[in-house]
Amino acid sequence: MNKFLELRTKLVVFYQKTDYLLKPMLKFLLAFIASLRLRAMFNYDDFFSKNIAVLLISAIAAFVPMSMTLAMLVVYASLLIQPFSMMMSILPLAIYLVLFCFFLRLLPEYSVAVIAMPVLLFWKLPYVVPMAIGLFATPVGIIPTCAGVLAYYLLNGIKADMITIDQVSSKENPVRIVSDTLNDVIKNENMYAMMAVFVLIIIVMFLIRNIKMDYSFEISIAMGSSVCALSLFVLLLRMDIGMGIAEILITSVISGMLVYVAYLLYRPLFYAGTERVRFEDDDYYYFVRAIPKIKILGADTGGGKKLVIDPSLDDEEDEEEDGSKTSDVATDDNIFGVTRTAEDEQDDF
Question: Rounded to two decimals, what is the model's pTM?
Answer without folding.
Answer: 0.76
